[in-house]
Amino acid sequence: MHAIGIDIGGTKVAGALVTEGGDILRLERRPTPAGDPDAIVDIVVELVRELGDGERIVAAGVAAAGFIDAAQSTVYYAPNIKWRSEPLRDRLSVRLPGIDITIDNDANAAGWAEYRFGAGRGTTDMTMLTIGTGVGGAIVTEGRLLRGGFGAAGEIGHLRVVPDGHPCGCGQKGCIEQYGSGRALMRFAGEIADAGGIGQPLARAREANGGALDGTVVAALIADDDPGALEALRELGDWLGQACASIGAVLDPQVFVFGGGVAMAGDRLLDPVRESFLAHLPARGFHPEPQFLVAQLVNDAGVVGAADLARIHAGSSG
Amino acid sequence: MHAIGIDIGGTKVAGALVTEGGDILRLERRPTPAGDPDAIVDIVVELVRELGDGERIVAAGVAAAGFIDAAQSTVYYAPNIKWRSEPLRDRLSVRLPGIDITIDNDANAAGWAEYRFGAGRGTTDMTMLTIGTGVGGAIVTEGRLLRGGFGAAGEIGHLRVVPDGHPCGCGQKGCIEQYGSGRALMRFAGEIADAGGIGQPLARAREANGGALDGTVVAALIADDDPGALEALRELGDWLGQACASIGAVLDPQVFVFGGGVAMAGDRLLDPVRESFLAHLPARGFHPEPQFLVAQLVNDAGVVGAADLARIHAGSSG
C-alpha cells in the first residue's frame, strides 16, 4: 500500500505518493507561504487529497525543519515558519480523517530515506551528516530512527568542536556547523583567497563574481581540482573527520553518510574526512572501521523518508 | 525466573543470582586471576554453577571492561585481561549447556541496571556517565541499550572537548576523560594547591599525605566544603556540563545519570554540571531540559545489569 510524504521547506512544499519500495509515483510542488502558517496547513491538506485521489492511503508523513516533539505531533519551533508549539498533527488529522498523520524533522526524514533506500541500506547503525548551508544530522541505531527523549536528537551540527570557537546561530560557540558547513567552506576559501599563492584563482573568481565567493563558484573550482579550493575543502573535511571521531565514540555507526550540496564533491570531500577520522579515532585498531559514503537520494529524500516513517507508524507494511 | 549476572573486574569477579525485579538473592566474589584468561573462564563457570544450584536458570550475563562485538559473543579487547578477539560466549556455552550466555561491556551493564532499577527508571532515553578514575558511559534510547554497529557505542569518555588538549590513554588528545574524571579532579586540585590562597588546605593535605593528593583526601575536603576542593570540583563539573551539551545535541536524553566514586559528591558536582550544561545548550529554551541525577545502584550495578540483559536476550521474562 502506498503512503504520502510531504516536505515543508523554506521556499517550497513538496508532496509525493511513495511505494513501499521507496519509489515516487507522483510528485507535486507548491511555493511555501512562509509567513502564513494557516495557508501551509491548507496546502498540506490539498496535497494529501490530490496525491491520494483514487488510492487507498492509510498514512501521510509530514517533514519540516525544526524541533518536533517525541510524540511526533507538535512543532515546538520552526526556524522558517511562524510555528511555536504548533499542534500540526491534530490540525491535519481533523481535516484528513482516516489517514494516520505523523510529523518528523526534515533532516530525520531525509536520513531515514537514505537508510532505507540509499547509501545506508543493509546496515543497522548509520549516522548521516547533511552538509548544506548548515550541518544537519540524522541517526539510525539498530534499524530505528533516533528521535531522543524530547524529539530533538540528531542535531549533530551543534556538537561542539572548539571551546569558545566561532559563534553559531544557535547562540553557542564552536559548533561543528561553523567548521563543517557550506558557509564554513566559503569562509575557508575566502581566507585562502586573501593569502595569495594557491589562493589566486579563488581571489580572481571572487573578483569576477562581484567580490563574493558563493557555492557555485567554489564548487566549479573544486571540480577543476584548483589547489586553493581543494585546500578549503580539505580543511572542511578535516574538521568533519574530527567530529565523526567523537560521534563514533558515542554512537559507533557502521557507516557515515554525507548528504547536502557540499557532499556532491564526493571523494574530494570524503578522502580528507576519512583520513582525519582515523587520525582522531580513540583506541584505533581495536575494532572495525566505519565506511564513509555519499548520499544516494539527493532529491526528494525528505518526501520518501516522511512517507516511509508514516507507513511504519501506521503499522501498515502490507 | 531468576538470572545470573557476572562482572569481571580488574581485581575481583563478582557473581549474583538476580530476580526479575533487580534484587540480588545471592552474591559471590572471587579474586580475578588477571594474568590467566583460562582461569577466569573457570571461575565464571564455577560461579554460574554455584549460584544456579537448585534454581531454574535460563540465562547468564557476563560483563567485562573492553570492546565486545555487536553479537555479544566476542571480547575484541580487554584493557585488564589478556583477551584479544576472545570467543568468550562460545567457551562458556560449551561448559554451561542449556544456559543462554551473553557478554556485555561492564559500563553498559551498570548503566542498564541504573535505567531499569535506579535513577533512570521511568524514562525512555538516559545517558549515564560513570566518573571514576576515567569516564565511562552507557546510553539507553527508546528503552534499549545502545550497543552500536560494532558493539562499541557509549564510549563517552572519548568524546573530544579540546582540540590538541590533554593527552589521553586512548592515544588521542582532549577527550572528556582528561577533563571530567577522578584523575582530572586530582590534577585540578593539585593546580589549586600550587596556587596558594584558597589552595592552602589542599596543599597542607597533600603534604600530610606524603606529597600526593588522592581521591580520599580530596573527597574529605569536598565534604567539608573546603573552597579550594570545591573549586576543583566546579571545574570538573563545568567540563562535564559542556560535554553533556554536545551529547544532548546528538542524543537528547531525558536524564543524565552520574555514577562512579566522584558522583558521590552529589549536588556539589551536579549543580555546576547543570549550570554549565544550560550555559552551553544550543538553541536553549526551545525544548524541555533534561534532569541531572546521581546513580542509585552504587554497588553491584554490573551484576544486576548483566543478569537483566541476559534475561532479555533469552526472551525469558516469565
Low-pLDDT stretches of chain A are none
Summarize model confidence as the mean pLDDT of chain A. Answer: 94
Biggest interface, CB < 8 A: A-B, 55 and 54 residues
Assign the CATH architecture of the largest domain in chain A: 2-Layer Sandwich
% residues in beta strands of chain A: 15-25%
- Quaternary state of the chains: homodimer
Give a description of the structure:
2 copies of one chain form a homodimer. Chain A is 39% helix and 20% strand. Chain A has 318 residues and is an alpha/beta fold. The first copy, chain A, has 2 domains: 3-113 and 299-313, ATPase, nucleotide binding domain (Nucleotidyltransferase, domain 5, 2-Layer Sandwich), CATH 3.30.420.40; 121-294, Nucleotidyltransferase, domain 5 (2-Layer Sandwich). In chain A, α7 (215-223) crosses α8. The first copy, chain A, is globular, with a radius of gyration of 20 Å. Chain A starts with a strand and ends in a 5-residue tail after the last helix.
